[in-house]
Amino acid sequence: MLGLCATSAFLAIGVLALILGYVLFNGISYINFDFFTQLPKPAGESGGGVSNAIAGSLLTVGIAAAIGIPFGIGAGVFVAEMAGPRLAAVVRFTADVLTGVPSIVVGIVVYSWLVLKMGHFSALAAAVALAIIMLPIMARSSEEMLKLVPQSQREAALALGVTRWRTILSVVIPAARRGLITGGLLAVARAAGETAPLLFTALGNQFWSLSIAGKPIDALPLRIYQYGTGPYNSQHEQAWAAAFVLVTVVFCISLASRLLLTRRG
Amino acid sequence: MVMTTDFRFKPPVTVPDDRAGPERATSCPISEAEAWSDGIVVRQLSAWYGSFQAIRNVNLLVGPKRVTAVIGPSGCGKSTLIRCLNRMHEVAPKARVAGQVYLRSDDIYGSGTDPVLVRRRVGMVFQKPNPFPTMSVFDNVAAGLRLNSLFSRRSHLADIVEQGLRRAALWDEVKDKLNRPATELSGGQQQRLCIARALAIEPEVILMDEPCSALDPVATLKIEDLMRDLSVSYTIVIVTHNMQQAARVADCTAVMMMAEDCAGEMIEFGATSEVFTNPKAKGTEDYITGRCG
Fold it and tell me: Does A142 contact chain B (CB < 8 Å)?
């Protein structure tokens, strides 16, 4: 029994190591300066880079974080600090259901809400889709983090004649700040790797664009998808390199959040 | 309440037994009129957590500028009683109160009374020292004023912080580390910091819920000295299950005991010396002689 469980555990670690190793092995040799600074070359030509995809990913995930994280924290504060047990259970359950909604469904819904209404694909539509994916993650993690703040801290503030909302804002949230940042980082890491909702909202773009609402925008996962399914070897190489960059970013974010949470003092 | 006493130049009281003088015996019991005008009057107070009744029909007169101790075995509702005096009881989920509490004849459970304003008049120190861990020593003392947006100018704040720390007999120990995190202080210092924090908003009454139960004997003695000093200008109510502590610091003592249904009732109230040497209730005698509780 012990052997079986240990094997399963090592299998899980092994799979991660295998994926990371394989991506590293395939991708690292195609990483160069041009890869980060150049725009994609026309299909079939070698060289060029994915600077537009990197910028697009930063832009969409950034806007998504600006929408998803504050609302997520707000929902977490509501559940942890204000709602009664029954209402809290309802919100918690709803958040869990939302976490379970397939991301492609989020994509198609935002497509019909925003892309069709606005008339074009955009960074904004992509950001809204990613924010919807981040929202429940952020809400649940911030609720858990706020609950870890000892009741004695709230009582200390309330006993000083501090109002409830000021207690939450100036005592409870600062006490939980490290956990909240961790939750935010994990939500960002999750959103950065999402591909399916971007197909319906960002679409992808061969050219440089930082337009928020006007035109389609590129993103790393889309670039990987497009190059990976393309016919040319040069595209496959760049897809591996992009996968390597994406995995590295997500891995670093996860690592940073882990360090932040375990560090004391 | 106007603070007129300057504690800076007051010689520290070091030997606790010296304080058990006759002047304390005369300061209790207090007259009802005095409790009405300057103290706290508790009338038929009952409190519940959900369907569980924690205290039943408590009547109590708290005299101004005295230490009043509430003693009794664990779970008899002592803490619940004092948490009702600054409306902290209702912070617990499903908590409920019936009866009246008058602070200088203001009904603190009156329909128009804001609990936030009650808590500014009635400060509280908790069992475990609970300084804000994210704040410095200075910011902890200033927290009450800052978070209530009462003062913003740093210079003014600095005076108030110094005064609070001096009154809490902590200034000399922390004046060089005002900007260090409060969590670096020792347990006893943290508790005095919490007292300074409570004093900084100039309350009329200070409630202390077993303030020494997490502290070592030396730190306990310091807090007890402090309570005696503070009682010159503040009304203090302390909950303790340490009978020697009550005997050392309190002018008046109330004894609570659990009834059959676990609700706490007050079985005796009077001058501390009377309660300990000549108890009227059988329950008090059993408790202080160690036969129960």
Answer: no
Sketch the domain layout of chain A as residue ranges: 50-262
Of A150, A162, A171, the CB nearest to B148: A162
Domain chopping of chain B, boundaries: 16-130+203-288
Write the pLDDT tens digit of every residue in B248-283.
Answer: 999 999 999 998 888 999 999 999 988 999 888 888
Annotate B108-119 with DSSP letters as a single string: TTSTT--HHHHH
Strands of the sheet containing B106-107, edge to edge, are B106-107, B95-103, B40-49, B52-62, B264-271, B252-258, B67-71, B235-239, B205-209, B122-125
DSSP B10: S
Contact B83, B89 (CB under 8 A): yes
Class of domain B16-130+203-288: alpha beta
Cβ atoms of residues A84 and A78 within 8 Å: no
B-chain CB neighbours of A174 within 8 Å are: 134
pLDDT at position B74 over 90: no
Question: Domain A50-262: which topology?
Answer: MetI-like fold (1.10.3720)
pTM of this prediction? 0.84
Q: Which residues in chain B have Cβ-Cβ distances shorter than 8 Å to A156?
A: 126, 130-132, 194, 197
B117 touches chain A (CB under 8 A): yes
